[in-house]
Amino acid sequence: MVEKFQSEIISIKNITEDVKHFVLTTPDNFTFIPGQYISIVADTEEEKLRRAYSIGSKPMPNKLELCIKIIPDGALTPKLDLMKQGDKLELIGPLGKFILKEESKEKELIFVCAGTGISPFRSMIQYLLEKGHDKPITLIAGYRHHVLYDEEFTSLAKEHPNFKYEVALSSKGKHVQDILPVSKEAHYYLCGLDQMINSVKNILTESGVETIISEKYD
User: Is the pTM for the entire model greater than 0.90?
Assistant: First the structure.
């Protein structure tokens, strides 16, 4: 059920020079499906801003996690950059339909993302592995320089034989398209900018892959 609520910042961690990991409180009755997002609402001198951020953690009691890139000339993120533990935020959610299809739960899953597009897949992967999903899961993550949650996913890949994790750094001349596994029977989920999603979709459709679900962000 979508609702508006006040949240308190539990913690903020810098995970790269321009990306922060927020842990926020949620009400007792707040629930969401991995892959959904929340909107942060903030007042400025000119207008009331509302920006969407994918929830980057599995469902947990009374808290959620966000991975937010700070845009220096952005409308909202410079304000978020100045916030600290104990500050309050107004949230609306959960929202969105970028969730695992029921039929995907019995299939090989391949997640492909770029940058902070990792967020919904971090939520899904944490949830699936905790629930004992035993089908193959692959995460292909692309970044320019700095990798997000690398230690976490590397550790998960060691703990779970069915989970495979690969990274492509464009600063070193490698892109997700270069390491993309193609499996006609797998269900693919893509999250990132238009250019990456369109390119990956073209590769997959030309290879006969039928199930491709994507979420584009600006």
Answer: yes
Q: What are 140's strand-pairing partners?
A: 112, 166
Rounded-to-integer distance, Cα 153 and Cα 126, Å: 10
CATH architecture of the domain covering 3-95: Beta Barrel (2.40)
> Structurally, what CATH architecture does the domain formed by 102-216 represent?
3-Layer(aba) Sandwich (3.40)
- pLDDT, residue 48, reads 85
Q: What is the pLDDT of residues 94-147, one digit of tens each?
A: 999 999 999 998 999 999 999 999 999 999 999 999 999 999 999 999 999 999
Strands 3-14 and 19-25, bridge-based pairing = antiparallel
In the chain, list all ranges with CATH 3.40.50.80.
102-216
Measuring CA to CA, which residue among 17, 126, 156 is closest to residue 64? 126
The whole-angstrom separation of Cα 16 and Cα 48 is: 28
Q: Which two tokens stand for residue 212?
A: 């491709």
